[in-house]
Sequence to fold (200 residues):
Amino acid sequence: MCNLYRMTKNASEVAAWFDVVNAAQGANFGEEVYPGYPGVVVAEGEVRAMIWGFPLVLKGKQGQPLKPKPVNNARTDKLDTFFWRHSFAERRCLIPLTGWAEAQGAKGRMTRTWLSLPNAPLFAAAGVWRHSEEWGECYSMVMTDSESTDAAAVHTRMPVLLAPEDQPCWVDAPPDEALGLCRAWAAPLTIDRTTESWRR
Fold:
């Protein structure tokens, strides 16, 4: 599952790439995006800053509220469950990225393996978003099985990547049509196995 991705373009560049309005001017987000931190998405014809992850509200042993946990990945086979259903039906978005990372190696010595599209300065993963009381607007990345793809050598799941011609369908089509796009990326991927520690 994806717990780190890279987005090296600013909000203005993203708006120009997707030909949408930049509503995230002045927003702060890092080039490496982690769960619970801000990133940018394309939603309702705008680039918006949101928090990566739907808040899962937890309670302690005595019933006291705990800090919410960001649920940053939405599995394709779970999109019809209560937690995701309304967002998938009504609020789908594009998540711009330049690559995503998976942890590989022995526990305690895991390193980052980056995956991206060859020669693509920017591409889009499928996302869903919603309003939350805890963090305001937030989003989650839709994941699918990576079987029979280049990504399978790194992890059993991967983000649902959307070709430019499929992006309008993901955002605007009825849910059953959008669900048809939830498949692994069959084209080649660039895989960069690094010596970077997974946890910095």
Summary: Residues 5-101+118-187 form a domain with the hypothetical protein yedk fold fold (CATH 3.90.1680.10). The two ends are 19 Å apart (CA to CA). The first strand starts at residue 5 and ends at 6. The CA atoms of residues 89 and 174 lie 7 Å apart.
